[in-house]
Amino acid sequence: MSATNATGGIKRLLIANRGEIACRVIRSCKKLGIESVAVFSDADRRARHVQQADLACHIGGSAVGESYLNAKAIIDAALKVKADAIHPGYGFLSESTQLISLCNQNGIIFVGPTLESIAAMGSKIEAKEIAQGLEIPTVPGYNGETQDVDRLQKEAERIGFPVLIKASAGGGGKGMRIVRQSSEFREALTLARQEALNAFGDDRVLLEKYLVRPRHIEVQLLGDTHGNVVHLFDRECSIQRNYQKVIEEAPVSHLDMKVRQSLFDCAVRLGRHLGYRGAGTVEFIFDADSQQAYFLEMNTRLQVEHPTTELVTGIDLVEWQVRVANGEALAFAQSDLKTVGHAIEARVNAEDPANNYLPEIGTIQLYREPVAEGLRIDSGVQQGSEITPFYDSMLAKVIAFGDTRGLASQRLLHGLNNFAIGGVKTNQEFLTSLITRPAFLQELTTQYIGKEFPQGWQPWGEQMHTAIAACAFALEQEHRTDAAMAGTPWQKLGGWRLTASAGTPAVARLWLQTNNGLREIRVVGRQGKYEVQVIEPAAKDSPSTSAHFSIHLYRPAATLADAQWQVELDGTRRSLDIAITEKQVSISSPRLRRSYRFIGLEDAMLGQAAATKNAGNVIRARMPGLITDVLVQVGDVVEEGATAVVMEAMKLIHNMPCPVSGTVKQVLVAAGDKVEDGSLLIEIEPAQ
Ligand code: ADP
Known about the structure:
Elements: E1 12-15, H1 19-32, E2 35-41, H2 48-52, E3 55-60, H3 71-80, E4 85-87, H4 97-106, E5 109-110, H5 115-122, H6 124-133, E6 141-142, H7 149-159, E7 163-167, E8 177-179, H8 185-200, E9 205-209, E10 214-223, E11 229-241, E12 244-250, H9 257-274, E13 278-287, E14 292-299, H10 306-313, H11 317-325, E15 342-349, E16 351-352, E17 358-359, E18 362-363, E19 366-368, E20 375-379, E21 386-387, E22 394-402, H12 405-417, E23 420-422, H13 428-435, H14 448-452, H15 462-482, H16 489-492, E24 506-514, E25 517-526, E26 529-536, E27 545-554, E28 565-569, E29 572-580, E30 584-588, E31 593-597, H17 601-613, E32 618-620, E33 625-630, E34 637-638, E35 643-649, E36 652-657, E37 662-667, E38 674-675, E39 680-686
Parallel strand pairs: 1-2, 1-4, 2-3, 4-5
Antiparallel strand pairs: 6-9, 7-8, 7-9, 10-11, 10-13, 11-12, 12-15, 13-14, 15-22, 16-17, 18-21, 19-23, 20-22, 24-25, 25-26, 26-27, 27-28, 28-29, 29-30, 30-31, 32-39, 33-35, 33-38, 34-37, 35-36, 37-39
């Protein structure tokens, strides 16, 4: 559907958001010939959305409360630049009745539904009531107004455990708690209420039967101001972590068409009832065991995963949000709509999936998006972008389209593998392992990640890449030694003792600092032919393990610029990009991108001693954040690995474990404290 006669009243649109969604809305503005206005905080002065927009307004400090969540500042900016309309994107103020009221008071068009729709769907209790009134099935549970503890406990018993407590005002998985048995209910309720009050200023909760094998299915709606409401089919978002979506696709597979049709009907019925205008999503949960589908909630805004629907329906949802806000009628009826092919989206985050998904902050030093048939990248960063602790960690979405689900996933894999991002760790490899598991071809449930990676996710080929990097280091050193560079730093590296005489293989021992301790690499060999052993440190419940590799390595001649190294492993030869500086080996293969900083014997021993003496008994904040819970007190006897502090940073909850067993000596924080990167939080006197 092309944009004809589309601009209507809106000539200048302010986007009250940042990152990829701001860039996405700017794209549709360009298509419609509308001027775009970006807003930015202190931390975002040089952000990509600011550079792409026609105009940009500074709205305040880096903290979201001072800028992107400050409705007043946003309205002031819109008035200053005489914007006709505001697009809220998703998150931030996208479902804020305050922003709409201010828009209405100031004659600014809000690109979204009415205040009444947002208010009705903003409370899960009320939304569920409305759905029930329309005979839309809802998850068995309790969504009454009476909120006293005894009543809730009684209702929980009636529903039967496990029960899920949800914050009525909740979103993004916040304020949700599973209760597995009756005796745990009261405590869980207290905690859930506290969390809800802190996060949303509303401590009302609802109770639901906790479904053990649910699928997340949602229906995209589009309505206009002329009474038309259509659905744009469904999406599946079952691959989640902590109730947050990781991979999304359209349309839904492995589900009976009759069930799907009934969900389309329910969604449209709800949309009509609300007089819904603009884009919205009705979410359902499908119980894979009982094969029943239930209404979950409605999101009255554009969703992160909207591109999948755009690719299979050919409809630009942002364009239609704007046109509808302009008063235009939808140019298509339900019978004009269909889906073609399949689309899958993966969210690329700055985080370390091998280290409990810890968000990463830093500068994006390398950035190249893949370009290929059937691939769409929606991103909000570029080379040089700063990833700060103030906002969420999503950098980009890779969305692949194909005639079939198989082709779409193949293209997605290729897109993720060829998306070069350096400077911060990303979850790209984690995403590729999610879509290449055999289970990805079967019916998906929200248990997918936990089931596929019961021990947590570890990168494929990590040890192999460590081994190759160590060999490259060895070969480089031989090369430099041969070139008679005695006395260079290469000779001084403690671990390298090439003591063997000519003709016998040399042995080198190197160490790498890993999250679990020191990983040792032993390299035996010469001139590119090596036997390598990679020895992992012993962990709490597992002994030290080792892996063995036979590697032939061919170093490119220095005269050939840009030449790649060749590595032969298990009889197969491949090309690899390897760069070696004095102490660091960077290696980039399609499956893995890593930088290794090897250390020699003395440093390894010193480091280990220092680690146990200093760092080993304290917990420090690894980034700025908010302490949400402190679970230990001075004098407590604690076990290594037990959670001591819960911290919120970059919109995520981090459980921070005790590094050693012992007695708590100092507790320097309390719930509600803001902490800086590196702040000391807890000190433990290690048990002897
Ligand atoms: P939020 O508004 O915080 O995103 P939702 O109600 O949309 O909360 O639920 C988010 C996710 O939580 C769902 O996609 C699903 O994975 C899980 N979930 C929600 N309700 C249930 C339930 N009754 N049983 C099991 N899982 C649930």
